[in-house]
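Minutes, methods subgroup
Present: GH (chair), OT, SY

1. OT presented the first of two proteins processed in the latest run. Sequence and structure tokens recorded below as shown on screen.
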Amino acid sequence: MRAVGYVRVSTENQNGCDSFGLETQRDAITKYCIANGLELIRVYEDPAFSGSLQPLERPGLHALLEALKAGDVKEVIVTRMDRLARDTMLSLWLMKEIKKLGAELVSIAEPGRWEDPTQKLLLTMVAAFAEFEKSLITSRLSSGRKTKARQGGYAGGKAPIGYKAERGDKALTLDEEKASTVKRVFELRDMMPEASLQKIAGILNIEGHTTKEGKPFYPMQVKRILDRKAFYGGIYRYSGVEAEGQHQNII
């Protein structure tokens, strides 16, 4: 019987060699197929941090569902149900879609079959607990980030141009080169209050300034800098919290 596997990581910490890492999941799926006489033809994976993505936004899962349409795969193997999804309704929807495509979803850690009402109930409960666990983790992370934000520290997210975010740091650190670009944006705005964003972007490009990614400026990137005037002046805002930031002012 032909089978495919699916592996996924949903947080940065899982994208390695711990108990939920991709290599560990692939190894478990391979061993399961060998032990059960299954022909493993492919393992689909989503190595990016995919926890917040909808199922068809995950390229690996999307490719898997498309491949099932050929009808020659009879089992889809995951190491645990939460590798498929941590949302109960989403898990059940995916199980149903896989079933409609002529295959059966098999979780190594939570074996069960749809034909058995008791096993079906257990699978539903597993999906519900996975969603509950995700909600707890999200709540704890949000609480911790808000506490850090109240202290003016870095609560997460992509660092704005002019700053760097290092893992473990309590505050953003200054990027000297890009900080000069931020200063120049506000200088140009003060010098030419009526100038368009397009004009300011053009001047920045002529002077050799680049974005955080090293690319030319466009009006929207200029606007984003101007919209963060309070932040560049020392005010840190996060999810409704406002405090005097620990980061060094640029303006």
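2. SY then presented the second protein from the same run.
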Amino acid sequence: MTVINLNQLTPAPGSRRRPKRLGLGSGSGHGQTSTRGQKGQRSRSGDGKLVGFEGGQNPLLRRVPKRGFTNGPFKKVYQVVSLESIERIFKNQTEVTLNSLKIHGLIRGRLPVKVLGDGSITRPYKISAHAFSKSAMEKIQKAGGAASALESAPVSPEKNSSR
């Protein structure tokens, strides 16, 4: 039985083809117009069209009536942490802060943190976060712990808008 090492692997003969080399003169077979044809939109440089472009016809997105309201720029987005992961990671500690959550890799970045009531806790923890779900609050207090809500820095609409 022969052993094949990773450095001996090669593709099957004929399975790999060289890429077309465009615009390298008439002898290459792909010179002059470089397989783009004579004239027209696709033959020009920068011919890429925007998403939804329909060849000059009024696009679907502009034809359909717009209704409703979106609160996108002012939507509150939280990083979520479950009670289950707090119980699993903070076995020997009683105080859970944003710094400790960041150190243990449960959160990252600057988004506000919300604690959710998934799982259960058996020890009294002193947890500080920006928001808590009702079930998380009940479970923390039932275990004899405390939940303190931090004030999140208001995100200004100028920074959050998509301009």
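Chair's summary of item 2: The domain at 75-152 is CATH 3.100.10.10 (Ribosomal Protein L15; Chain: K; domain 2).
Next meeting: continue with the remaining queue.
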